[in-house]
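User: I'm designing a mutation panel for PITH domain-containing protein 1 and want to avoid disrupting the core. Could you give me a predicted structure to guide residue selection? Please restate the sequence first so the numbering is unambiguous.

Assistant: Good idea. Sequence first, for numbering, then the predicted structure tokens:
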Amino acid sequence: MSHGHSHGGGGGCRCAAEHEEPPEQRGLAYGLYLRIDLERLQCLNESREGSGRGVFKPWEERADRTKFVESDADEELLFNIPFTGNVKLKGIIIMGEDDDSHPSEMRLFKNIPQMSFDDTDREPDQTFSLNRDLTGELEYATKISRFSNVYHLSIHISKNFGADTTKVFYIGLRGEWTEMRRHEVTICNYEASANPADHKVQQVTPQTHFIS
């Protein structure tokens, strides 16, 4: 599928191991998969129906290569990811194969439910050029100001490194999940340690829960 759109923006990545967190904390940091409405999650152009859901799994299971998604008609994939509350998205990990089927570009769109490939002609909220990541250690940091109130995330894998199809084994999401209730707000903070750059503004968080 060719869409004739330009790619702006860009983003840097950092090795998740830089934080030197214990494995249990790394798993906690990437716990936003628990807050995805999997029944409504869509992956467009997947070769096997329902396989796109399988890449949103615990960080500790990212090396499980029995669960993966491969594109069908061409190299593109489009994930429509509804959350069960509001999310402040801070980082993404995307893990692929050690060949040209690994994604080379990722485009993020927020709050466009039921997004289709026709909708990818619009300007994304952020675009990343990807490096090959075979171990699930490279995190791509989002522009938090743009992803601070996300109830639906679309991930468009627009390119790979030259193969006919694209293969993805794991997508990890890091950030905070907020459940909106009538009289209270519950915040789940999915990050192992605070990044000072993310917290320049003092915030009041009534309840912070870690999901284990």
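For picking mutation sites, this is relevant: The chain is about 5% helix and 35% strand. The mean pLDDT is 83.
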